[in-house]
Amino acid sequence: MKLHHFILLSLIVLVPVAVSAQESGKVRVVRTRAQLDALIEREGKALPTWFKETPLNYPQTLDLSWPEGPPAGGWNNQKNVGQYVWDIINPNPGRWREGVRLMHHLLTLNKDDPEKRERIMLTMCHMYHDLLEDYARAAFWYRAVGVEKDPEEFAQSAVILAECYWRLGCRDEALKLLAKVPPSVSQAKLLGDMGETDKAIRMALSDEDAQGYDFLAAGDACRQAGRYQDALGYYQKVLSIEVPAKNPPGRLLKNRNRAEANVSAIKAFELFDPKRVPDGKYVAASQGYEGAVEVTVTMKSNRIADVAVTKHREKQFYSAISDTTAKFIAKQSVKGVDTTSNATITSEAIINATAKALVNRK
């Protein structure tokens, strides 16, 4: 079962939109379906403002024909486009815009190959959504692929398109689209983020998983909703899964580490009060996807002044590092900080490490 598969650009609409107050003083725009469609169409057809200033920068050894399947000579990020995106573009925020520019270039080069264009457009959707958090353009290209018309065929992409609709202020359309998609952990994650906690739990538990992803997803939904005792119960279920004495599954061991870190962090929530934390810098680490993620928390005048990720080995962290750390400053708490889409494990590690740093204060 796949667990993985967000700088939102300013979006100015030409029609009036309603707004509703959200927690932490934020305001979420609410749009009708017609307003959503108009926004996506306008933004999607227009290149980003930064596009022309972004160089078309890629290794001259890259095979721009992008053949499908593993190459005979093995994967090489200087030759294979997919490997170049994975190894070079995704982990380097300074190159995210270059990645989008490259995908547009490849669309032109492969204009007569429908199958290749689909792969290129889906990769560009990932960049607009996961990296740049440009939800309108991501939605435009997902629609161009045909995701909305055939959500079962493009199930994982349909969940991400539904998230785009929600982020752009059209919650009802997001829920309608999700209703057409087969159950998955990623769908449960989105429902939890949207506040549909009970639906998220049912979704997560609808497909029993021997490695604990179902209980982790249910626990995450409860944690996001502030239902900490329920969350602890689901995380304990992960820890109760029997581990084979010989050749234990690596993913099960990682999930147990995540569950243990989540339990410790939730218990730490009850002890945390910014007014009781002296000024200074506090360091702690928690389990990420590739290894430990270390954070340094700076307290000043009884406030969280800064949270910085100081060490990590995560490769596909997308915008989790900048997004998650910024949320602590906004909320002045470790409670209710949600994880970044498609980088859940890295975000979770940052949240857990921050909680640990503030409570243990080492």
Biggest sheet architecture:
3 strands, antiparallel
Task: Say how many strands there are.
Answer: 5
What is the chain-wise order of helices and strands? Answer: EEHHHHHHHHHHHHEEEHH
Helix content: 40-55%
- Structure annotation, total helices: 14
Parts with pLDDT < 50 across at least 5 consecutive residues: 1-17, 19-25
Indicate the radius of gyration in whole angstroms.
21 Å
Terminal-residue CA separation: 37 Å
- Order of strands, main sheet, comes to 3-4-5
Determine the oligomeric state from the structure. single chain
Percent of residues in beta strands: 5-15%
Average pLDDT confidence is 87
Kindly name the structural category: mainly alpha
Judging from the principal axes of the Cα atoms, what is the shape? globular
Structure write-up:
Among the domains are: 64 residues; 89 residues. It has 14 helices and 5 strands. The strands form 2 sheets. It has a 3-stranded antiparallel beta sheet. The longest helix has 20 residues. Strand 3 and strand 4 form a beta hairpin. It starts with 17 loop residues before the first strand and ends with a helix. By secondary structure, the chain is mainly α. It is globular, with a radius of gyration of 21 Å. Helix 1 packs across helix 5 and helix 9 packs antiparallel against helix 10.
